[in-house]
Structure formats: structure tokens, C-alpha cells
Amino acid sequence: MKLNYNKAEFYSSYGKFSQIPPSENIEIAFAGHSNVGKSTLINKLFNRKNLARVSSVPGKTATINFYKLENIYFVDLPGYGYAKVSKSEKERWSGLIEGYLSADRDIRLVFMLVDMRHTPTKDDVHMIDYLIDTEMPFVIVLTKADKLNKTERAKRMEAFKDEIPYFSDIHSIPFSSQTFEGVEELRKIVEDIATDDEE
To answer: What is the rounded distance in angstroms from the CA atom of residue 33 to the CA atom of residue 14?
Structure first.
């Protein structure tokens, strides 16, 4: 199913899990550390400059933001692991993320974003473990791929095998908002999900 990405629109945003209405469409979620580039990825996917508000301040997305395109909700989860917020704020984010992921919603896939340049954080690994344990389908998107040369990239891909559980068995996609690497592959996954829903 070919989607018209230009038709994507901001739908709504929620600061508490209890505010989110029941699931009425299939959903694809974006998870990752603060400042890993979730908003940038969403904008690239939809070929839009400012659909998702990009901030240079980590931890800015403190709400769950829903975007809608045809029969799909794209759900931008708050970035986790940002050190400079209060404990209560961290707990609120964690409640939002886990509340959303463990609810009875039609979540078809989680795009799990990891910064390709660095060792995944403890929170990243915790999140990946959670997705594996709950048998939630997910794809790892390795962001900021253009910042590495060929040798550095090969080294990181090798290192991920030790740093991320079952890395070799998980579908991973290097992504760059600068060179558009990975965009078509991500869109193909989204379109496959949209097509499956029609059948």
C-alpha cells in the first residue's frame, strides 16, 4: 500500500497515560533516549520540516505525541534517560512509556532508536530487553549514521553484537537525516504494516 506521507498530520498530545483515548487504529511507536533524533526521524519519514517539533534541548518531548496518516497512528514516546530532570518527572515519563507499551493497544511495531556513534545506554538496553520480554515487534534504527566513516561504522556494528542482546537476530537499519539513508527502508516497513491491516 503506497502511503501519501505528505498527508500526515499532528493528531494530539498527552501528558498522562490516563488521558490517552482507547486504541482505534493500528499504531507504530518511536522509542529512544532523549536527543536520539525521534522527531527528526518522524519529519524525514513524512518528508516534512516541522511536523514533529525538533528541539536542541534534550528531554523536550515530555508528552506522548500522536501523528495520523490514513489508518495509522505514529506515536512519539517521550525520550528517556535525560539526567537533568527531577525524579518525579522521570517517573512520569517512565509511567507514560510503560503505560502505553503495556496497554491493550494495537501496536504493530516499535522503532527503537539508538545513536549509532555510541555504546547504547543502560536505558537503551533496558528498553530492548523489555521489548524482547514482552514479545513486542521492533526494529532498531541506528541514528546519526552519517557521522561515522566506513571503518568506524564497521567497528560499531561489530561492537553492537556484544552491547545489545540478540543484536544479530534483530532487524537494524542505519539512518541519517542528512543523507536520507534508511528512509526508504523505514517507509517500506510502514507500508507493509498498512497493507497487512487492509487484508
So the answer is: 19
Cell numbers for 193, please give them: 504494516
Rounded CA gap, 34 and 139, in Å? Answer: 18
Residue 44: its pLDDT value, please? 94
Architecture in CATH for domain 5-198: 3-Layer(aba) Sandwich (3.40)
Contacts of 177 (CB under 8 A, 6+ apart): 37, 40, 41, 43, 44, 143
Show Cβ contacts of residue 192 under 8 Å, excluding neighbours closer than 6 positions.
none
* pTM exceeds 0.90 for this model: yes
> Looking at the chain, how many residues does it have?
199
The count of other CB atoms within 10 Å of the CB of residue 143 is 26
Give CA–CA dist 110/113, Å, rounded.
9
Alpha-carbon gap, residue 61 to 80, rounded angstroms: 9
pLDDT at 82 over 70: no
Give the domain ranges of the chain: 5-198
pLDDT in tens, 12-69: 998 888 889 998 899 999 999 988 999 899 999 998 888 887 655 555 557 889 999 9
